[in-house]
Amino acid sequence: xxxxxxxxxxxxxxxxxxxxxxxxxxxxxxxxxxxxxxxxxxxxxxxxxxxxxxxxxxxxxxxxxxxxxxxxxxxxxxxxxxxxxxxxxxxxxxxxxxxxxxxxxxxxxxxxxxxxxxxxxxxxxxxxxxxxxxxxxxxxxxxxxxxxxxxxxxxxxxxxxxxxxxxxxxxxxxxxxxxxxxxxxxxxxxxxxxxxxxxxxxxxxxxxxxxxxxxxxxxxxxxxxxxxxxxxxxxxxxxxxxxxxxxxxxxxxxxxxxxxxxxxxxxxxxxxxxxxxxx
Length: 279
Ligand code: KIV
What we know:
single chain; alpha/beta; TIM Barrel; 2 domains; 12 helices; 8 strands; elongated; binds 3-methyl-2-oxobutanoic acid
């Protein structure tokens, strides 16, 4: 029997009880299975997919079709975790109708439980329309990679009092619009702590300090698979790439030397049948 999926109510309760919420990204079936069985509460099919899996420079090239394709695999691979799908660039910024239609398409075609979108005041109407349609929405403030160009690159956000005040107002406005969870990326811990205490919905931090209600990291960073630039806020918990490289080099070497395959990896037939086959 499959486990019951966690719901938005469980996260609100966890916040009230002071229990930390864990979130990690996954983009495929085996990873989803692994992190779900390990016990994370939420899986994010992040548009970081673009960099860590598809080999793009940034998240801007990721399409809704990419997100749907990968999210379907993640949903099939998980039983208990709440699966959140990132709405890619330009699928929610143009019009509110677009945002609602695209959020609906993602949920309907993947079976995921919620969507995440980046931004503050400018996306409040979209968040409101999507939640009114019954789709759980996660907000994302601070360093929002889809607008990194406008923010001047991948930098800490909110050190400036004016920007910090705006972030607090945006967080409250998103909560009023119906957001059930907020991701805060690359924000000074004091500001993240303040926002966490002001909101009744859980705040999940990435580079936002330990006072948040939970933490999120990119799977490939956690496991030491991604070879690109590693931000200061990443902690690597395994060196999986080294292990994988060792394994693949051993395979190449054994094939070349004739050590693999061994008898136990091989099928055989009797000589008589072989002779008959040659008749
Ligand atoms: O795309 C992503 O992986 C994200 C996380 C870094 C929060 O948005």
